[in-house]
Amino acid sequence: MPATDQELSFETKVVHVGQDPQQWNSRAVVPPISMATTFQQRGPADHAGFEYSRSGNPTRSCLEELLASLENAKFAMCYASGLAATDNVVHLLETGDHIVAFDDLYGGVGRLFRACAMPKGIEVDFVDARDPQVVAAALKPNTKLVWVETPSNPMMKIVDIAAVSAAVKKGAPQAILAVDNTFMSPCFQNPLQQGADIVIHSITKYINGHSDIVMGCIMTNNLKLHEKLRFLQNAVGAVPSPFDCYMVNRGIKTLALRMQRHHENALKVAKFLETHPLVEKVIHPGLESHPQHLLAKRQCSGFSGMLCFYLKGGLAESRKLLSALKLFTLAESLGAVESLAELPSVMTHASVPAELRARLGISDALIRLSVGIEAVQDLIDDLDQALAASQK
Ligand SMILES: Cc1ncc(COP(=O)(O)O)c(C=O)c1O
Questions:
Q1: Same domain for 362 and 333
Q2: C-alpha closest to that of 109 among 13, 206, 182, 30
Q3: What string of pLDDT tens digits covers the 392 residues of the chain?
Q4: Which of 69, 86, 320, 341 measures 20 to 30 Å from 236, CA to CA?
């Protein structure tokens, strides 16, 4: 038997870490939902680990312990959403500080930087972080944060985390490298091992996996950063409810199984689309046609259910395809058991400035799929009939 949790395999950790029944008097096999907002103290300021549920909650603690272990991190903190987690990182900065951000990001993160950080005097440069030299050239003495997403949403671009980390450590040792690992989940990619200072997840996606909870988290190995972020988690107060933590603690147990199925299904769907005459191009890091396929294979141990493709035609054809789908649901979000399809240009990435959308290739013919865990042939058949319907 391994001596520490960290020596256990991912599939075992995801079921057992943070779940020890001996934590509870009742020895319940799953952590109970602890709804209490406040906790009895033995004497003034003499508490048993919990004071008030915003600063700490037993159900949330179990989940945080488990999440830390999955990223091989010392610390994890949960937030009310992925954006609340991102906002806590932005709170580490002050007026006059500088952020270097990947130009291909989930629209909401870009919006937070543009609409909330920049007006407060924080400078942000959006660059193509696929090239570590481009990141290095953007670093300045006041750069405090480098923010990347890999694979990126929606263009599935890959950032070489180790190379960017080396560039940041050399060119701006005062800066934090943050990696949004939402698309891969801790199952397929562990950025802290590759030199990131913090990892962010929208738990809303793969980690919870059932389209019924909005939550985010941050993991780190850096004690000082942990202390600052833990302070902000309480001071800013965007924490998740104990019920939501219970739900994530339940959904996460099948993460390894789900990710394997997402990986297999999406790769088969990508290969089907790649041969389809009505498809212009498929973007999936697991395809040899992806320009960063070798880097993706080196950096990740699998691929998720995410891919996008260019349909032949424009907005009218995309609309027809999306409304003809029967199994894929037309909806924002991603990473859950059911397959979803969306049009980033008018949905998830509508807040990206039009000029940047055009430069990134987020056109009205770009369809994003989140391939679920259904029988893959049913999904392929659904896409096949919808592709035919798109040209009628
Ligand atoms: C890659 C990525 N990061 C962050 C977020 C924001 O997370 P949330 O919606 O949980 O606030 C999203 C949401 O779609 C996302 O796709």
A1: yes
A2: 182
A3: 566 888 899 999 999 999 999 999 899 999 999 999 999 999 999 999 999 999 999 999 999 999 999 999 999 999 999 999 999 999 999 999 999 999 999 999 999 999 999 999 999 999 999 999 999 999 999 999 999 999 999 999 999 999 999 999 999 999 999 999 999 999 999 999 999 999 999 999 999 999 999 999 999 999 999 999 999 999 999 999 999 999 999 999 999 999 999 999 999 999 999 999 999 999 999 999 999 999 999 999 999 999 999 999 999 999 999 999 999 999 999 999 999 999 999 999 998 899 999 999 999 999 999 999 999 999 999 999 999 999 98
A4: 69
Cα–Cα dist 162/340, whole Å: 32
What's the CA gap between 236 and 389, in Å, rounded? 49
Q: Residue 275 is part of which domain span? A: 256-390
For the Cβ of 204 lying below 6 angstroms from any atom of ligand 1, the answer is yes
Q: Give 339 Cα–ligand 1 centroid separation in angstroms.
A: 17
Residues 151 and 269 in one domain: no
**Residue 83 beta carbon below 6 angstroms from any ligand 1 atom:** yes
Do 215 and 295 sit in the same domain of this protein? no
256: amino acid identity, one letter: A
Looking at the chain, which runs of residues are DSSP E strands?
Answer: 75-79, 98-102, 123-127, 143-149, 176-180, 198-202, 216-220, 279-283, 306-311, 329-330, 340-342, 366-370
For residue 140, the CA-to-ligand 1 centroid distance in Å is: 28
* Alpha carbon of 203 to ligand 1 centroid (Å): 8
